[in-house]
Amino acid sequence: MFQKILIANRGEIALRILRACREMGIRVVAVHSSADSDAMHVRLADESVCIGPALSRESYLNMQAILSAADVCGVDAIHPGVGFLSENAAFAEMVEEHGMTFIGPTPEHIRLMGDKITAKVTALELGIPVVPGSDGALDPEGDIDSLADRIGYPVLIKAAAGGGGKGMKVAQRAAELDEALRIARTEAKACFGNDEVYMEKYLGHPRHIEMQVIADSYGNVVHLGERDCSLQRRHQKIWEEAPSPAISSEVRKKLGDVVVKAIKKLGYRGVGTIEFLYEDGEFYFIEMNTRLQVEHPITEMITGIDLVAEQIRVAAGLPLSFRQSDVRFKGHAIECRINAEDAETFMPSPGTIQDYLTPGGYGVRVDSPMYQGYQIPPHYDSLIAKLIVYGDTREECLKRARRALHEYVITGINTLLPLHRELAEAGDVVKGEYDIHWLEKWLALKVMKEAA
Ligand code: ADP
């Protein structure tokens, strides 16, 4: 087992990884930007190194600086967390070249799944159904209009290198196609330095269902069930639950078997998530994330498996400590993403936290590095806390979510707490009847009602 791990990340996920390391008796090196000197994961780490100024490009994305810190501190492994360098194959390669372990899959698998076009081709080869669309990247000189006609409107233009909902544009009808292509390409170029795009049928009422898998280096692959992440705004997840209110245990088993077979065939190692759109009883692959997901805690709550600890174990070359038949799904879990944003306008709201009181009690978990007096820097992702609640049934879980959301006090900045309080009472959410478009429609309706 590793003696010392460097966490190449910040915020709640850095803290989450630090907690797993502590419990495993592994020493932790935190790296941070100059804007994060007071961050909780830095305070709690055994050692910390400032790797650059606030700008991510010069700190959390600065591979040389991170590797130097790792060398100086003599770490055995680097955990990339989520975002930043977690899906950067070149970084994974460099870590290994420096004689350390990258806590994640092989660079080849990261590369294969990092390009969404090759990921879709691979999924098809592995026997996983995909969203109907273009065979590969769209040729700017090709007959894109005819292709869109064949696929059928509305169509979605997506960036090959996409992530975080960026570089995605819908064309409802032929007249909108050129504009959608132009915007998607421009955004893709700006965000990912790659303007390659592809086309998919834009599904009208799917749910976002993703399967968690974990694999060791000995060919053992286990799925840990699905998460329903359909409550989204601008293709970004806001509220997640496990299990999905729309999936029966038979469907779960069927999808799980398909996914496990595919991941075995791929020879994959580490944690991974296969994302699907689920509409009218059919699953369509959209992408695979070759890393930990922000919403992993809800899977932990219903399986009793510490995913981060298990991820570290398989990276250290240990076999999985459980088999598929050992995995039991019990109860229900919901995660509310608390972003430092205005709950109505969604404008980011960095600043100083004045009062901070977290909810507690049975079945309540808060993954957050916040504390009273903490200054949220304006440079990073707005996610400041995850409220995770567990209940024996979905109904109990929802009641607990309402109770915990009302206990949670954060002042000094705006947060999404008021939005979550409303969502937890909303009729369709209570019934579990929502698709990926539901939240945006509900928000639009709310604005109209308030204006009237
Ligand atoms: P990213 O990597 O940017 O997150 P994804 O491919 O995972 O992009 O898609 C993010 C979200 O966008 C999905 O969860 C879904 O809500 C929406 N989406 C993606 N593809 C489609 C599609 N073909 N039809 C309708 N919605 C889609």
Walk me through this protein's architecture.
There is one protein chain. The longest helix has 18 residues. With 452 residues, the protein is an alpha+beta fold. It folds into three domains: 85 residues, 3-Layer(aba) Sandwich (Rossmann fold), CATH 3.40.50.20; 70 residues, 2-Layer Sandwich (Dna Ligase, domain 1), CATH 3.30.1490; 245 residues, ATP-grasp fold, B domain (D-amino Acid Aminotransferase, Chain A, domain 1, 2-Layer Sandwich), CATH 3.30.470. Strands 13-12-9-10-11-14-19-17 form an eight-stranded antiparallel beta sheet. It has a five-stranded parallel beta sheet with strand order 3-2-1-4-5. It has a three-stranded antiparallel beta sheet with strand order 7-6-8, with helices on one face.
User: How would you sum up the global shape?
Assistant: globular
CATH class of the largest domain: Alpha Beta
In total, the number of strands is 20
CATH architecture of the largest domain: 2-Layer Sandwich
Radius of gyration: 21 Å
CATH superfamily of the largest domain: ATP-grasp fold, B domain
Mean pLDDT value: 97
* Span between termini: 62 Å
The CATH topology label of the largest domain is D-amino Acid Aminotransferase, Chain A, domain 1
Ligands in the model, by name, code or SMILES, are:
adenosine-5'-diphosphate
Largest sheet: 8 strands, antiparallel
Assembly status: single chain
